[in-house]
Amino acid sequence: xxxxxxxxxxxxxxxxxxxxxxxxxxxxxxxxxxxxxxxxxxxxxxxxxxxxxxxxxxxxxxxxxxxxxxxxxxxxxxxxxxxxxxxxxxxxxxxxxxxxxxxxxxxxxxxxxxxxxxxxxxxxxxxxxxxxxxxxxxxxxxxxxxxxxxxxxxxxxxxxxxxxxxxxxxxxxxxxxxxxxxxxxxxxxxxxxxxxxxxxx
Length: 201
Description:
201 residues, six-stranded parallel sheet, 8 helices, 6 strands, 11% strand, globular
């Protein structure tokens, strides 16, 4: 069933956009996954492993500023561990994989370290302190915007840094007013087009 996005953000199709030197982008975890993880193509769609790395390359060539949020480490590590476990055996549960197969654990830890090393050498960290105020702000946002817990905190990091542009494949971000979502997600782009929210720069 297609997702019925209510588009409140401005949407930019990265397949036809050219980054500008003055652009500042926060990069979502899913994009870091496809950009930095060696086995990212195993369970991803072709456009995810081609369009996003290509756009990141264009951003770097334009000398635009890329940002990452430290919170992405948790999500990136989880996603890499999950993929490595599936490659090793889909019959093994996460806790078994983590504790009973030390050689495999060392392999996925090395993958996470290598991926994160690429993130921190490519982008600048935008800090966020997850305290009561941040949690309350995220919870307030949760009532009106269809996002998961990681995304709520990523948006708080964007707010704190004064950043309004995010590169992501996650269509949930299109529900957030006041930001620009740079994406190759065809469902999000189609919804933005039909609702007059597609931005051509």
